[in-house]
Amino acid sequence: MSDRAKNFVAIGVSLFALAFIVVAFSAGARTESTAEERIESLSSAIRCPFCNGESLADSQAGVAADYRALIAERIEAGATDEEIIDEFAANFGDSFILDTSTSAWSIALWLVPVLALLTGGAAVLVIKRGASERESVDG
Amino acid sequence: MGLVVLGIRHRTDGLKAALRIPVLIFLFSSIASFVLLEIAILTHDFSIAYVANNTSTTTPFLFLFAAGWAALEGSIVLWGLLLAIFTYLVWRQLDKTDGLGVLALAVMGAVSIFWFGLMATAANPFAVCTQSGGDFCLDSSWWPLATAAIPTDGLGPNPLLQNHFLMAVHPPMLYVGYVGFTVPFAFAIAALWRKDSGRAWLDRTHRWSLISWSFLIFGILLGGWWSYEVLGWGGYWAWDPVENAALLPWLAATAFIHSAIVQRKRGMLQAWNFILVITTFALTILGTFLTRSGVIASVHAFSQSTVGPLLLGFLALIVVGSLVLFAVRAQDVAQAPRLDSLSSREGYILANNLILTVFAFTVLFGTLYPLIVQAMSGDEVAVGRPFFDRAAVPLSLLLLLVLGVGCISPWRVATPELLWKRLRAAIAIGLLAGAFAVAVGVDSLSVVITIALAVFVISAIVIRFFEVARQRPEAIGRASAKVFGNDLGYWGGQVSHIGLAFVAIALATTSGLAVRETIAISQGESAVVDGYCIEYIEPFSRTESNRAVQGVRVAVLDSSCSTVKAELEPRINTYEGSAQPIGTPDVWTGFVDDVYIGIAGGTTETIELNVFVFPLQWLLWIGGLIVVLGGVVALGRKPRRRLRTSDDVTAEESGSTNV
């Protein structure tokens, strides 16, 4: 197969596969998560009281099962995820909420790693600039 | 108990022979202390507090033996033993007039003084029990001749630690990894001290880094497997502080192994390599501190004691001392970078280093964040899986992308045309794999992206391998063997990369596509979960020497409940001297799925079962093993341009590193 033919095949196959993925996802897009998925995500976002730091989803202790059942009840009763999280926070304190995305402290938690990435990226670019400048001086 | 025989051996810039006696004393006293501790444990000498509090007469042999390192004091004995063995091996490899090696040995000596000091003071494994509490020890004294009060029996290990054989093997693997990084660290400090800017320290520690790296990831893998088999929630990774503590040095070490290649091949990144190796070593100490001090709530909080502040002090000493030394020497060791193009092997490795260090930093920051916030404001916050997952997934995907492009790039410059030529087939195959995943019903976008990227990486490597092999005159089989054998360092690395891609796929499918249900069924009944029919056959119970076992026999059948695939026995174990029963799940591994069943509650008439279905779970273990295997293969890289003495050769032959 000539080089051009290889290019043709590679691009063709890639576009076909990409189109398939995009179409399948836009057709089958779901907006609502099921009650089970909500229990799953909520219980992994709440730390189980008295369970060595494990989340409600991870812990095998009886209390964890009770709280998971409680979450299921609250979902059944029509509570939103935020309401359920707030109820747990009010009862046990913020340190039992593992998903900090609702707390003010989470801004700093996210900001610092992002800043680290940007600083690192900038450092690489500076190194590169320095290297090319020296080269142009040398050469 | 003459274990605290410390070498006065370092600081003597003398010959190898002069160091023989102190090194051997160090080695034999470490072996002696380990053997003595094991003898005390195996003969049930409960006059020793450690033995009384961590073993009992009914503990099975394997866990009895493993108790030698399962708790704090014992783990430090094992740590000292490994350090002594490594010191001995480094000493064996010394040349006649080897300033760098002798100085590195001195650094290792200083590190071992700390560990042995710890063993002699805060964490003395041979402390004599002075007040018996019946079947455990209430109080103890470090003074060997103190009047002993002998408990009648021991407490036995923590139930979680004697529930699975993996718990006996997983920690020593991690320790080898942890302790092993002392060697590159020692050589780096020695090189800094002597203003050696060359690659001598890298060449001489190359194998140590690779061995430690392989052991560390193997230990992490075994830990994940243990968690999966024992903890009962079906997970293998929870971003627990202690798990993070093992991951952190591994991330830094991975960055180091890659950037060391850049220095060896292109003479860049000298200063950066020093920083990375110091970071790696500091993170191993931090990991020990997090594990042993109990400052952060963790499922691993098996032991807490006064070693915390000592470890923290040691950590501070290392970080400050190393960085000061580095700052003083930076001018001497750093060379101006010669980066021709960002799109080149070294450019992509630089990107890899950036991602890995940001990854490590993010995990470290997230782990310590609750402490930071508490110190600053007194507020209590928790950082758990949601944060780590959200941060790790994009970074990991980015890493896979850079990996796929970087590992087939040439050094210096990789033009877009060349990259396209080498990658076009892999891009097509990766996207096809993504489309295939969608076609078989994967409805999570992040899983599809991961599969596409991982398959892209694997195909890029495999295709490149055969391209290179085809350029040789021999037949393809022979040519492949030649290509592989001629550059074990590179291809070993690629084996690890392929393993990593498998791991990525498994991480995505087992977290993104898992099905978890709790079912309640009576004896003889069945229920269907995600296409598997689960039937409750009968309850059973039995008594073993150290525990009472209650369980149920269940069958896993196909969705129509007609063909039996497997019979499983999820159990609940109750250990002597412990009120908390420990659930033990049972797993059936099929061609695609793992069916994971644990007892959630209920009665023997109507049992409640947690039934989890994890797609491609086995790929995680296989992929992880391939990663380790790649590390072992890469050890075969022939060291180049090194003066070797006869002593050296025998040391390498007797060591089993040449695989």
CATH domain fold name of the largest domain in chain A: Helicase, Ruva Protein, domain 3
Number of strands of chain A: 0
Query: What is the tally of helical segments of chain A?
Result: 5
Tell me the radius of gyration of chain A. Answer: 25 Å
- Mean pLDDT across residues of chain B: 85
The largest inter-chain interface, given as chain pair and residues per side, is: A-B, 60 and 60 residues
CATH class of the largest domain in chain A: Mainly Alpha
Helix proportion range of chain B: 55-70%
Q: What does the secondary structure layout of this molecule look like, with pairings?
A:
The complex is a heterodimer of chains A (139) and B (659).
Chain A: H1 3-27, H2 35-44, H3 62-76, H4 81-92, H5 105-138
Chain B: H1 16-42, H2 49-54, H3 61-70, H4 72-92, H5 99-120, E1 128-132, E2 137-141, H6 166-180, H7 182-193, H8 200-230, H9 241-266, H10 270-293, H11 307-333, H12 345-377, H13 385-406, H14 416-439, H15 445-470, H16 476-486, H17 488-512, E3 515-522, E4 526-529, E5 532-543, E6 547-557, E7 564-568, E8 571-575, E9 582-584, E10 586-589, E11 593-602, E12 606-615, H18 617-634, H19 646-654
Antiparallel strand pairs in B: 1-2, 3-12, 4-5, 5-6, 6-7, 6-8, 8-9, 10-11, 11-12
Helix pairs in contact in B: 1-3, 1-4, 3-4, 3-6, 4-5, 4-6, 5-7, 6-8, 7-8, 7-10, 8-9, 8-18, 9-10, 9-12, 10-11, 12-13, 13-15, 14-15, 15-16, 15-17, 17-18
Descriptive account of the structure:
The complex is a heterodimer of chains A (139) and B (659). By secondary structure, chain A is an all-alpha fold. Chain A has 3 domains: 1-31; 33-100, Helicase, Ruva Protein, domain 3, CATH 1.10.8; 104-139. Helices cover 69% and strands 0% of the residues of chain A. Chain A has helices at 3-27, 35-44, 62-76, 81-92, 105-138. In chain A, helix 2 packs across helix 3. Chain A starts with a helix and ends with a helix. The model of chain A has no long low-confidence stretch (mean pLDDT 81). Chain B is α+β, with helices and mostly antiparallel strands and 659 residues long. Chain B has helices at residues 16-42, 49-54, 61-70, 72-92, 99-120, 166-180, 182-193, 200-230, 241-266, 270-293, 307-333, 345-377, 385-406, 416-439, 445-470, 476-486, 488-512, 617-634, 646-654; strands spanning 128-132, 137-141, 515-522, 526-529, 532-543, 547-557, 564-568, 571-575, 582-584, 586-589, 593-602, 606-615. In chain B, the strands form 3 sheets. In chain B, strands 4, 5, 6, 7, 8 and 9 form a 6-stranded antiparallel β-sheet that branches. Chain B has a 4-stranded antiparallel β-sheet with strand order 3-12-11-10, with helices on one face. Chain B has a two-stranded antiparallel ribbon with strand order 1-2. In chain B, a hairpin with a 6-residue loop joins strand 8 and strand 9. In chain B, helix 3 (61-70) packs parallel to helix 6 (166-180) and helix 4 runs antiparallel to helix 5 (99-120). The longest helix of chain B is centred in the middle third of the chain and has 33 residues, at 345-377. Classes of the chains: A mainly alpha (139), B alpha+beta (659). Chains A and B meet through helix 1, helix 2 and helix 5 of A and helix 12, helix 13, helix 14 and strand 11 of B.
